[in-house]
Amino acid sequence: MSNGPLSSKLFAAAKQYIPGGVNSPVRAFRSVGGEPFFVRRAKGARIWDVDGKDMIDYVGTWGPAILGHAPLPVIEAIHNAAKDGVSFGIPNPYEVEMAKLVCEWVPSVQKVRMCNSGTEATMSCVRLARGFTGRDRIIKFDGCYHGHVDALLVAAGSGALTNGKPDSAGIPASYAGLTTVLPYNDVEALEECFAKVGHEVAAIIVESYPANAGLILPQPGYLNKLREITQKHGALLIFDEVMTGFRLAKGGVQQLENITPDLTAMGKVIGGGLPVGAFGGRADIMDLLAPDGPVYQAGTLSGNPVAMAAGLAQLREMEKQNGYAKLDQLGQIMEDAVLDTLKTTGREYQWYRKGSMFCLFFTDKPVRNLTDAKTSDIPAFRKFFHKCLEDGVYFAPSQFETGFISLAHSPDDLARTAEVVQGALKSL
Ligand code: HOZ
Asked: The whole model's pTM is what?
């Protein structure tokens, strides 16, 4: 699909002043080809580009828009907070309310600190884990993305015990070498790794449901295994719930799976669409943070009153509307329609969904890890993506991302989406 003239003009200008024309690489549409559209307005389940085209949106600003775009309670909370000042750099009452709510909602969190992004949250969890254990090695999984933290931007090794290689220029190999990458959902590889280097491991960090390589779900018992093996070897378990936290349940995956991680990284939904992250967990670990302890972490805008007010309003509205149960119902409607469409179009693509998060992998192979996900037919995905966009449905511009349904998606939106998806699959 070619872009409207205003989007094209803006992209040309953006490329002169912003690297690649974007402020985050996935927005550049490189993995689907073509150019990004520029958004003028977003409301409910829809976004409008600068050329006036409207689309049903399943990106939802990459997760935060759980009530839909620009929900009234959040917008009012932002206005009310902003009238009293947009940043103080000294404690404010909203921060205390937010901390109390997070500790009440997220089972493992006894203390929490706010920051400004998911990247800051995971980075701080890793630093805390190293400070607490006095060990350096971190284990992460193939296909899990934890923001652009140096130590976590590490390519997946093909062998289970391969030490990390930097996945980005600018990261010293010696630094990345402290990260071990394992295949997700592979108990044998995990046991082998701990048998060799368990005494060096500060923490396992895992996206509780990996949602940055499409959506990959854990095999039964796998997350329990991570909990057991870390406990046995004196390492910490860090759940990255930036994508799943406050989206799948009040207490995220740890509530759904009844697992107690030591630390949790949070973000996205908790900020009501404003830039927010948070990390929390066991009080004895969190108390190592400055000013009480020796692990330094800070931020001028952390606990920002406007962001806190927006996040609190969004979370309270979710509770008021019994949002998680409703989102699951909407997810089920979409799932039924997609499975039906796959049957009628004779495609054996793999569909995964949990609540309001979903992914259709363009492969007939069940997806348990990144290697499986990479068997997807990327050219077919590209065609599908552009056909959907042309017909007014915006999915993430990459096979390796997750889709999000919001409370603003109506049954009519979902029915229209099903028609568009069917048409796009038929066109392949
Ligand atoms: N997969 C990313 C969100 N967790 C996409 C958003 C971005 O990098 O801008």
From this structure: 0.96
